[in-house]
Amino acid sequence: MTESIADPAPVAAPRAGRKRGPSLGDVAAHAGVSTQTVSRVANGLTNVEAATRERVLASMHALGYRPNHAARALRSGRFRNLGVVMFTLSSYGNMRTLDAIAVNAATAGYSITVVPVERPTQKDVSVAFSRLLEQAVDGIVIVIEAHIVDGADVELPEGLSVVVIDSTQRPDYPQVDNDQALGARLATEHLLSLGHETVWHISGPTESYSATRREAAWRETLEAAGAPVPEVLHGDWSTQTGYEHGLAIAARPEITAVFAANDRMALGVLRALHEAGRRVPEDVSVVGFDDMAESDSFWPPLTTIHQEFEATGRRAVELLIAEIEGRPEPVTSTVVPTRLVVRSSTGPAPL
Fold this sequence. Notes:
This protein is an alpha/beta fold. 40% of the residues lie in helices and 15% in strands. Helix 1 packs across helix 2, helix 5 (92-107) packs across helix 11 (309-324) and helix 7 packs parallel to helix 8 (209-225). The longest helix is centred in the middle third of the chain and has 17 residues, at 209-225.
């Protein structure tokens, strides 16, 4: 009996090892310098001659060398990562501010980690802080405009640099904001200067710092001018609430001037007035707030208040990095000026 012997199973060829990336020593040899010099350049130290630095950087580029940022973080105690806590990513102002934070952080050599907060509650804010601390951040920018942030039982991270945008009045952290009160005053004064007896206001949510500041300044401006102060129409920043209030406004011929607390609500007002056959600005003048990129394409083009979101984000990053890197500025509030942009949605009061 002949015994059949199966062919042995083929032996898999060993996998080729992953190609090793260039090392610090490779860069040093290519540039003709010591590894200590390459390390100084990789870590951004300044005690290297300019010509030598350029030669090392050129060798890094030629070899495809990437500094080990994790090792650098362990040595320096810095991660070059900024945390951002933000309530709602859907609002125009928050997205513009976040974009400015990201751009300016990257320019300074930092990355960002964003943790959205679904609801501005004490629990959710505390959870966001905890998540960021687990992500190894050097500091945090807080962009939450709701009043909850300055509650006594909301703990901000101890031992970590923090800058607040458009929010709390707490004196223990640097704060940056656009001048909400100035913008509301300019909007209201503009409409009064056109001969309107008074100005109706569609406010933002009652829990919003920005909304309450704009509403307070609108009211104070009317009172200072001796003008009647109408009942506030409360909105939620959406085009829909602007439209709904706009329909009610259109049914009242005595209303000739409206200041909406943001451009989206102003857009809703414009639509409602158009559908009701009330002309803008011949019958009703409308002013918004934000100066969205599309505001000059509304019909008619919208008179509005311009906010410097880029300047706000840039200043917040500057303050945060200065503190992280041991160059802290005095704790203070930075208020970025707003300005009136006059377009075609406002005109003289009807006779």
